[in-house]
Amino acid sequence: MKATEVPAIAGAYLFEPTPYADERGFFCRTFDADVVRSVGLDPDAFVQDSVSRSVRGVLRGLHLRSGAGEAKLVRCSYGRIFDVVVDLRTDSPTYRNRAFFELSGETQLTLYIPAGCAHGFQALTETADTSYRIDRPHDPAEDVTIAFDDPELAIPWPLPVTSMSRRDLEAPRLAKALENMES
């Protein structure tokens, strides 16, 4: 497994495993504490694992947490997703930068998203399972959602949106979400 910095988002990394494929399918390590440690992250900091299943066109996000934020490892374990990260850390050299990734069950790439960055994705296949490993217990009172279609962000979602949660549909634009976080 190797780790590669994401130039557009300071402190973000892609972890690329080495799948071993044969006639049965494949096997690969999706988390390696030594590799995580090698880029200055604490592998023991992750306290919760979750998974979501989405159908083609479903959009989830953009989400982040207020307060201390939430760092996460995100991986598409089955299918394919279009993944988005927006740096909203005011002290970051990549503040307001966006980065786009295609994560898939085929590659098993894992994306590390630093606390203070918004995250969202859209399912590109009929079924897409997305795994999350987060560094703080979830507190719904800290949830922040930003409109997926905010023109300021101009995210090039690849498919028409087929379904979203009510929370995501009613999310404020970036400026209002940031204003709400400061108050």
Explain what this protein looks like in three dimensions:
It comes from Streptomyces yunnanensis. Belongs to the dTDP-4-dehydrorhamnose 3,5-epimerase family. The chain is mostly beta strands. Helix content is 10%, strand content 39%. The protein contains three helices and 13 strands; from the N terminus they run E-E-E-E-H-E-E-E-E-E-E-E-E-E-H-H. The protein has helices at 33-38, 166-169, 174-182, and strands at residues 2-5, 13-16, 20-22, 25-27, 48-54, 59-65, 72-78, 80-87, 98-104, 110-113, 117-123, 128-134, 143-145. The strands form three sheets. It has a six-stranded antiparallel sheet. Strands 9-8-11-6-13 form a five-stranded antiparallel sheet, with no helix packed on it. The protein is globular, with a radius of gyration of 16 Å. The termini are far apart. The mean pLDDT is 95.
